[in-house]
Amino acid sequence: MYSSSLSRDRRGVSPVIGVVLMLSVTVLLAATVGGVALTATTDLDQRTPTVARSTGNFVTGPSGGCGGNTVAIRHAGGDPVPADELAIAVALPDTDARIVDLPVSGTALSASNTDDSDNIVYDYCVGGVIANGGKRWSAGRAITFQLNTGGGTVEPGDTIEVRVVHAPTSGVLAAVELTARR
Question: Are residue 130 and residue 62 in the same domain, yes or no?
């Protein structure tokens, strides 16, 4: 009787060890896959701020002064965003440009502030939170700049698209399609 009880106990150990080994392999595999997935992300602490709503306008007119051909994008609600984390992408029907490395000191863009091969963004007359060392784009604050549309590049009725981008994450904070009006 003693020997039959002992052999039954030994047979019961084998399935338990098998289950424990399978569970260990599963946990090890899950930890490995989780570790690889977490290291594949660039920066888990960096999130794109949320701009709940934005509005904009574009008024055509003479380029003299800062009144004509001015684009204004207003933050209407959501997270405030530091001006140095902003980039602005402007798309016209046949070309595009980017305004980067913000804010600028004063109201003029330098060569380092634009990626604009067709010279569509006028290098003077930037305003709002991207000029004069602005701090934050927050509710009620605007981003303004002027398009260099001498020669009739943009006429009343034409459409342009402006995207405000969170530079650290490349997330789009606002995308506004504007129709030029006089």
Answer: yes
**Looking at the 3D structure of the chain, how many domains does it have?**
2
What pLDDT, on a 0 to 100 scale, did the predictor assign at position 65? 60
At 7 the pLDDT is: 52
Q: How far apart are the first and last CA of the chain?
A: 104
Distance CA 67, CA 55 (A): 18
Let me know if 29 is exposed, middle or buried by CB neighbors in 10 A (0-12, 13-18, 19+). exposed
* Rounded distance between C-alpha atoms, residue 126 and residue 130, angstroms: 7
Range of the domain at 24: 14-45
81 shares a domain with 142: yes
63 and 121 co-located in one domain:
yes
Verify that 19 and 91 share a domain, yes or no: no
Residue length of the chain? 182
Pair of tokens at residue 39 = 């290291």
Do residues 104 and 37 both lie within one domain? no
What pLDDT digit, counting tens, does each position of 66-89 carry?
Answer: 667 888 899 988 899 999 999 999
For residue 149 the two structure tokens come to 């549309």
What proportions of the chain, in percent to the nearest 5, are helix, strand and coil? 25, 35, 40
